[in-house]
Each structure stands twice: as C-alpha cells, then as structure tokens.
Amino acid sequence: MVILMGTKTSIIKGLSLAAATVLLSPLTLAQEVSFHKDIEPILQRSCQNCHRAGGVAPMPLVTYDQVAPFAGLIEYKTGLRDRAGAMPPWYMEKDIGIQHYKSDPSLSEEEIAAISTWARSGTPEGNPADAPAPLAFDDSIKWGLGEPDLVVTTTDFTKLAGTPDWWGEVPRVAVGLTQDRYVKSVEIVEVNDVGDGGAGDTVGGLFIFHHMIWSTQILDEAGVNTGADTTTSWPVHEVGRNGDIFDPDGGRLLRAGSSFVTDSVHMHSNGRDTTGHLEIGFRFHPVGYEPKFKNSRIGLGNGVDISIAGGQTDQELHAYSVLEEHTKVITFEPHLHAPGERMCLEAIWGYTVETLSCVGYDHNWVRGYPYEDDYAPLLPKGTILHIVGYFNNTESNFNVPDPRNWQGSGNRSVTNMFIDLGIRVSMTDDQFFAEMEKRRNKLHLGPNDHVIGCPLCLAPLVAPVAEASDDELSNEVALQGAN
Q1: CA–CA separation, 367 vs 132, rounded Å?
Q2: Average pLDDT over residues 392-417
Q3: Exposure of 467 by Cβ count < 10 A (0-12 exposed, 13-18 middle, 19+ buried)?
Q4: DSSP letter, residue 319
Q5: In the 8-state DSSP scheme, what is residue 148?
Q6: Angle at alpha carbon of residue 288, lines to 284 and 294, rounded to 5°
C-alpha cells in the first residue's frame, strides 16, 4: 500500500504543478508576476541566507541582475520540491502526514508556480518600489539557533585534495564546565580555510567533515570513561545538517568536568587542501531547570544486513520497533546513503496504521525535521514504529558513483545505512495523559476531529475515563488499542 501511495503521490504532484502552471501562465496573469513584488520576498525568506556573498551556496541570489540569469535553474530546482537536488534543501512531502515543523523554509505550491511563471514569461523585473527592504546579513553570526552559552572547539584536521575518505578518532577536548547544566539546543558548525566560493566537490564546496558520532563523558586520570551514568549521547553531526532543539521539558545533561569524545569521524576531500575543525554550540536552560521527560533510546533501523541491487530503482527496506513506554517524537531524521531517495515514518496502534511523515533524501544535505510542539506525535506504549526506505541504484540518481554495483551495509558513502536518528522522549502514564489533555485544549479538539500521530488524544471525548482508577485507566488504554 505504501508503494502505491508513493507512486500515486508522484503522479498527483506532477499533475498539480502542470495545472498550477497552466492556471498562472496566461499572458495577462504572467505580466502580474514580477521579480520585486513576487519573487524577491520568496528568495529573502528561503534562499538568500545561503545564496549571498559569504554564504555557502555557489551564487548570490539577492539582486535582480544576479537572479535573472538563473531563472531556469531556479524553476527546475524549486520544482523538484522534495527530492534530491531540490532547493531549498527541505524534503518534507506536503501531501501526507503531519505538516507542522519548526524552521520550515519550504515553498508553497503557489510560490513554486509563481517562480515557474516568472521564469517562463521573460523574468520581468517590475517596479523597484514594490521590493521588500533588503536583508542585512551579519557574517559574524554563524549560529542558526542563536548565540551559544558554551562553545567547544575540536582539534584542527587537514584533508588533502584527492585523498581517500578517512574514518577514525579525533582528540578529546575538555568541555570546561564547572557546573552541571541542562541543554535546550545543540548546533555544530564546521570552520575551515576554504573561504568564499568553495571548492566544488561537496555541499557548497566547503566541508571536509561528513559526519561525527559523539558524546560527552567523565573520564578518569587515564582517560577512561567512568561509566554509562556519566555519559551523555548527542545527535549525530552530518554535512549540511541543521541544529537540534530538544523538547522544552526534555533537556539533556552536560556534566561538569566532562569531555567531548568521539571514535567515529568520517572525513572526505572537498577538492582542495583544507584545514578545519568543528565548533559545538550549547544553549542552556536556566540554572535550576529539571527535565520532566527522559530521553528515549529506541533503535529504529538496520545497519547490518542491507542489500541494494545494482541497476534497480524502487527498492525497499523496512524496520520496526515496539515502544515500551509512552513516547513523544520530537524529530524525524532519516539517515540513508547515496542510493537513498525517500523514507516514511509510520505508527501502528491496534488496527490503526498511520503515516506520520514522508521525506525525500539527499545525501549531500542531511536534514532533521523537528515537529512543532503542538503536533509532535504522542504515541502510547505498545505502538509499533515502522520506517520504510526507498532506494534508487540507477543512473538517474546522481549521488550514486557507479550504479552497476551491489551495495550492502557499511559506514562508507558507497555502502549503506537505514536508520531514523530522530529525537524522542518517554513519559509516565500521568505525563502521557497530561500531554494529551494539553493538546486537546490547545487545538480545541472535538470528538469529530482527527489528530495525526495521537491515536488516544480523542479517547476521553468519546469514552470518558476521568473518574476511573489507575488500573482502569490502563485497561481502557489497552482496550482502545484492541478495538
């Protein structure tokens, strides 16, 4: 059923763009679409942060003279919507699942159609008086989530042009914290000596760090980890990736006296000799903050027995995990490798099978998709999380270097992983019921509403349980799942 849905969706998307273009393409309407009035606001919101002098993108898209020569390319890239190569690099499919995400830069169907109409009608500049005020960029600000309270800097690493990929351990670094603090967001940026313009072989031609799996640990005098209870795991860093915002009630602990530790860094050449390092920016909750929710450690994926045939597309992988505790899903983050084209996240509860999110995938721009607070999935224990990955190992996938080859499991980009690296927190019974009640009130839900990702949100509206005992509440939840 998922395959049919995906195929049908692609057809519908193609038809909708054609229909939208036809509706907007008559000369009378085309003359109304101009750069300053219609296109420039779109570029300011979703493009210029990267496409500008000093940005990571290859050409500036700020003035009319800079943009007009690339009108056809912009039409093509934005028309890709949610597949590899799309711009802006945000691949959430808009016709299925939850549609409320934090920091979503994606374009609407109307905006994509306006760009197409503008590009195909001679790129009229329009009246400069219609232009929005130009944006002012401060290149001293490199943190998308705000200025950090603490920055940890890794050791410099030099990657020479044309050399093979490298995996290994980089030196440990003391965090320098003297008081335990809970973290509300963490963001990692690469700083190197490439300069403006990039080199051309990786994202923006800028980066040499492909990914890093890391933690903070309390180490003894011999540099040995003192135990699991003094270790905090953090989200994986990947090239082009956005920062991570934890649940407001689920901050992670950065311990005093801890050190940055990693034994899994992947480096690659960007086409020129480059020296660079990573800077890890932590933003803290106020002193005295205590999280309500525990970090949930759910393994959802497969990195062991992957098999991707050569020369074939529409190949699928599936993975399942049963929730042992009530869970809130904070972020959906597909992690595939070069053949990966798409991943869907599904929740199975009783007889209910519901798609939460489907996103395209581009190995050059790895994205995490944080749900807005009032729309993050609230799933009862016993729910089965299911991910479906779609793979294209043919010449039509420009990320694959040689599609003739079979690909199996492994760390290299020419091998494969299949994982949802998203952030989740677990809840007690009382917390779970309180979260559902808060959502019902916040969204003004009635008995005939439908809430994607919250199968029990409406249960009290159709079968009140407010005066039931704790045992009866548990039985009611079980019955809802059975029915």
Answers
A1: 29
A2: 89
A3: exposed
A4: E
A5: -
A6: 70
* Extended strands (E) in 235-374: 237-238, 244-245, 252-254, 259-267, 274-284, 294-295, 301-302, 312-322, 326-329, 331-332, 334-335, 340-349, 352-360, 369-370
User: Per this entry, what is the length of the chain?
Assistant: 483
3-class secondary structure, 114: helix
Which pLDDT value is given to residue 414? 78
Phi, psi torsion values for 163, nearest 5 degrees: -90, 155
User: Would you say residue 474 has pLDDT above 70?
Assistant: no
Residue 179 token pair: 């008081």
Token representation of residue 245:
């915002």
462 — pLDDT class (breaks 50, 70, 90): low
d(CA 366, CA 243): 11
Q: 356 with 464: CB under 8 angstroms?
A: no
Nearest-angstrom CA–CA distance, 269 and 72: 30
Burial of 143 per CB tally in 10 Å (0-12, 13-18, 19+) = middle
Question: Cα–Cα distance between 147 and 141 in angstroms, integer?
Answer: 8
Q: How far apart are CA 211 and CA 214, in angstroms?
A: 10
The tokens for 324 are 């042992």
Determine the angle formed by the axes of helices 109-120 and 2-24, rounding to 10 degrees: 50
User: Among the listed ranges 27-36, 249-258, 297-306, 327-336, which one has the minimum average pLDDT value?
Assistant: 27-36
Q: Residue 97 — left, alpha, or beta (φ > 0 → left; ψ -120 to 50 → alpha)?
A: left
Contact 397, 341 (CB under 8 A): yes
Q: Which residues contact 459 (CB under 8 A, 6 or more apart)?
A: 465, 476, 477, 480
Taking 50 as the threshold, does the pLDDT of residue 422 lie above it? yes
418: closest CA among 328, 325, 345, 323? 345
**Long-range pairs, 473-480, Cβ under 8 A, ≥24:** 473/429, 473/433, 474/429, 477/380, 480/350, 480/455, 480/456
User: Taking 80 as the threshold, does the pLDDT of residue 444 lie above it?
Assistant: yes
Q: How far is 184 from 25, CA to CA, in rounded Å?
A: 47
Q: Which residues contact 76 (CB under 8 A, 6 or more apart)?
A: none
How many helices and strands (H and E) does the chain possess?
Answer: 9, 25
Residues 6+ apart with CB under 8 A from 373: 247, 248
Calculate the CA dihedral of residues 38, 41, 43, 44 and round it to 10 degrees: 170
Closest CA to 425 of 304, 298, 303, 295: 295
Cα separation of 332 and 144, whole Å? 19
Which residues does 437 contact at the CB level (< 8 Å), separation at least 6? 460
Tokens of 482: 């059975």
Residue 141 pairs in a beta bridge with none
